[in-house]
Specification:
Helix content is about 40%, strand content about 15%. Helix 3 crosses helix 6. It is globular and about 80 Å long. The chain starts with a helix and ends with a helix. The structure holds pyridoxal-5'-phosphate. Pyridoxal-5'-phosphate binds next to helix 3 and helix 4.
């Protein structure tokens, strides 16, 4: 909470229209277009919804292939599977959980319809290279920018580069509305149809703008719009974007500086940020030496009431995927699955509490070495 959330929610209710595409939805759209420079966007109820819209928009047909990093959230893959796509998983880099662009080309076939890049922890993927592949082989790039609000590739905002991009405002992200998301449309060929898919397959938005005299069922779609109450909460957060972001980036840097000594002694690994990528303070992780050490660290920290958490289970080894496709190897992804650990990072995190986390992480590694 940053201050005005409840005030705007009350105002939305007083305006007498809390369904989708109301006053605050429009204000959020304006913010994203005018202040952030996105060409076109639509708020959705989640990033999962936005990914499902993207799969419909690029017209996925049964048998089409989509290349996705295995180290990601379920929805990145599931949204395309719902439309009948076959998922081809790509590995991460050895020093960064993002999709290894060198692993993409060998997965491309004439059936490849899209590559979905995930900017893990808000750190950009190598966008110039994937965009070149897309034009060479003629497929779409969709940015899953769920974690990447206010982050950059070179001087370009993440979410503004691929043909389509999706954001999340789930309460675990930087800017939140409980559940919430957004589809960004960077290719104008998708503008008209996106609005129809958003509005249950009807041309209702055009009707409300007075462009047609009745609205009809014209395509497939679903109810992808969030309530205006959700948008009101989100708008208050957007107004405080700078405050939230500068605090989160400071917390990120404190962890990095505080733990650098352990990295230099090679007790653990810290995030490696490519030159082309910015930081947005979405999450801070360390990489332990193995699964056992990570489990021990989690319980060591929980002894001090510090909640640290691991992250994704490799999707290529998920029961759903493996039962249909058999075994696949993504070695780097498996390393992050078993060794990556996230430390507490949220807007309200107290600086003294953060120092306590750093102190105990150091204590764990120094002690462990002493015992050996
Ligand atoms: C959070 C997240 C999602 C899902 O977002 P929802 O808004 O909860 O649907 C998808 N992809 C990635 C990479 C995420 O981090």
């Amino acid at each position: 909470m940053t201050g005005d959330e409840l005030y705007y929610i009350k105002d939305a209710v007083n305006r007498g229209k809390i369904s989708g595409n109301g006053y605050y939805t429009q204000r959020c759209h304006e913010y994203f277009k005018q202040k952030m420079g996105f060409r076109n966007c639509l708020l959705t109820s989640s990033c999962t919804d936005a990914l499902e819209m993207a799969a419909i928009l690029i017209n996925i047909q049964p048998g089409d292939e989509v290349i996705i990093p295995s180290y990601t959230f379920v929805s990145t893959a599931n949204a395309f599977v719902l439309q009948g796509a076959k998922i081809k998983f790509a590995d991460s880099y050895s020093n960064n959980p993002n999709i290894d662009v060198n692993a993409i080309e060998e997965l491309i076939t004439p059936k490849t319809k899209a590559v979905i890049v995930v900017h893990y922890a808000g750190v950009a993927c190598d966008m110039d290279t994937v965009m070149e592949l897309a034009s060479k082989y003629n497929f779409f790039i969709i940015e899953d920018a769920a974690q990447a609000i206010d982050s950059y590739y070179k001087d370009r905002r993440l979410g503004s580069i691929g043909h389509l991009a999706t954001f999340s405002f789930h309460e675990t992200k930087n800017i939140i509305s409980g559940e919430g998301g957004m589809l960004v449309i960077n290719d104008e060929r998708f503008d008209e149809r996106a609005e129809i898919i958003w509005e249950k397959g009807t041309n209702r938005s055009a009707f409300f703008r007075g462009e047609i005299d009745k609205y009809s069922w014209v395509d497939i779609g679903s109810s992808f719009l969030p309530s205006d109450v959700t948008a009101a909460f989100l708008y208050a957060q957007l107004e405080n974007l700078e405050k939230i972001q500068s605090r989160r980036k400071m917390l990120w840097n404190n962890y990095y500086q505080g733990l650098l000594e352990l990295k230099e002694k090679e007790y653990l690994r810290l995030p490696e940020i490519p030159d082309y990528a910015s930081l947005n303070g979405h999450l801070f992780y360390i990489v332990c030496k193995d699964l056992k050490e990570r489990s021990e660290l989690i319980s060591f920290l929980s002894g001090y009431k510090i909640h640290s958490v691991f992250h994704y289970q490799s999707l290529h080894k998920s029961p759903f995927y493996e039962s249909k496709n058999g075994e696949l190897e993504c070695r780097n992804c498996d390393v992050f699955e078993s060794r990556l650990l996230r430390l507490p990072l949220y807007y309200e995190l107290d600086l003294q509490d953060q120092q306590r986390v750093i102190k105990h992480v150091k204590e764990f590694f120094n002690k462990e070495l002493y015992e050996i």
